[in-house]
Amino acid sequence: MADFVGAIDQGTTSTRFMIFDHDGNEVGRHQLEHEQVLPRAGWVEHNPVEIWSRTTAVIESALNAHGLHAADFAAVGVTNQRETTLVWNRRTGRPYANAIVWQDTRTDRITAELDRDGRGDVIRAKAGVPPATYFSGAKLQWILDHVPGARADAERGEALFGTVDSWLLWHLTGGVDGGAHVTDVTNASRTMLMDLETLDWDDDLLGFFDIPRAMLPQILASSDPVGYGETRATGPFGGPVRLTAALGDQQAATVGQVCFAPGEAKNTYGTGNFLLLNTGRELVRSASGLLTTVCYRFGDEPVSYALEGSIAVTGSAVQWLRDQLGIINGASQSEALARQVEDCGGVYFVPAFSGLFAPYWRSDARGAIVGLSRFATNAHLARATLEAICYQSRDVVEAMERDSGVHLDVLKVDGGVTANDLCMQIQADVLGVSVSRPDLAETTALGAAYAAGLAVGFWSTTDELRRNWHEGKRWEPQWSADRRECGYAQWRKAVERTYGWVDVD
């Protein structure tokens, strides 16, 4: 039997390939960033060709560095930034336009119109999400309406739609030479186009966005031993490898954190923050601004659902300090700068660059820094940025407790921002609960590997995966209750100052 399982982790800012052994240990990785294309305010794009090129490069580099070949892998899984939307030609493989990234807000008028005539209520009932710029359906409509030739080709069956998983799987399995046009239930549940109960594309929802069904991928289970196909010898693996799993990145992190029981939750700190609570077979409708989504589906087993709180800008706010303001040279420097002060000095930063996601869903909001005085320094702004990450997570935790009745005694965390010890301490202080990070914080790739390995018997049960989880570090709350509640009250006031900045017709 092959010794390893691989995972392609295609994220918002970078692509990595990671290799794991049977104990869930990382054997190797390679990672490359890709360009963030910002044509105008509110628009965020990626070059699909660059993403595929980076994917092939990280696979080849990781294999070469460790002397591995296709035969060394029992299976490979794919995980991806979820709602980012691509359209390409099935005969040429060329994209019709850049991918429209999940953070992009150009579809605000399309989504606002959905709520004015009642279609928004149908979307909430069937798809489990509100009509928002975040999701794929409106982005796909925008491409079909604005890119010359895209709609005509879609109606003829020549144009294909997919989230990034579909784009990569199509290329890995042959591309123009018979590539598989597929996705999984977790990614499909982020489009506003899939019915959460039937787990299939819904004709009413497709009609709302005027999307031809022929351009949509086949929806598979997240872990499927057959449906995703095999890599080609001409691809980056240089031979056949079974592709047996695909999951959206946050669902993959939930699997990587072994949150398999109802009531178990994790929070991933990346470009944005994403808190998922496993609700098992129960499809819980949120009354507090959260999303109802698919958590995962393994093979022929019944689907597991989740409540999710999605926050658009957290880790990317730290990148903004680096790239746009230039007050730090690297993300790790934000911690050292923030440690120069004991608190935020009354400064609050609400990074609503793409509006506010859960639990507010305000597309009219934009970022604001409030509470400035002559006393404020760049260190206070750095501290306020870390606190913003944590306060936004508290917003979601409180909404989740209202919807589910589940009170978190400990918050499992993962993702790149969790390397910032100060930020995680602030998170424990803001929530008033323990924060626990596993010894392998990059659980998104691990979850994709777990799902792929389960499909082929590399791991036999989820109980076997639980035994691989080990705590790496824990933070306990240190703030007094008064400080915690005062700070949160000020945060809520700051959030209100961001409302109504953009007029949405």
Provide structural commentary.
- By secondary structure, the chain is α/β, with parallel strands linked by helices.
- 34% of the residues lie in helices and 21% in strands.
- It contains 16 helices and 22 strands.
- The protein has a 7-stranded mixed sheet. Strands 3-2-1-5-13 form a 5-stranded mixed sheet, with helices on both faces. The protein has a two-stranded antiparallel sheet with strand order 4-7.
- It is globular, with a radius of gyration of 22 Å.
- The model has no long low-confidence stretch (mean pLDDT 93).
Question: How are the secondary structure elements laid out?
Answer:
Layout (H helix, E strand, L loop, with lengths): L3 E7 L3 E7 L5 E8 L11 E2 L1 H19 L6 E8 L5 E4 L9 E2 L7 H9 L2 H9 L8 H11 L3 H6 L3 E4 L1 H9 L9 E3 H4 L5 E2 L4 E2 L1 H7 L8 E3 L22 E6 H8 L8 E5 L3 E8 L10 E6 L7 E8 L3 H11 L7 H6 L9 E3 L17 E3 L7 H27 L5 E5 L6 H11 L2 E5 L4 H14 L5 H5 L4 E5 L5 H16 L9
Parallel strand pairs: 1-5, 5-13, 9-12, 14-20, 20-21
Antiparallel strand pairs: 1-2, 2-3, 4-7, 6-8, 10-11, 14-15, 15-17, 16-17, 18-19, 21-22
Helix pairs in contact: 9-14, 10-12, 12-13
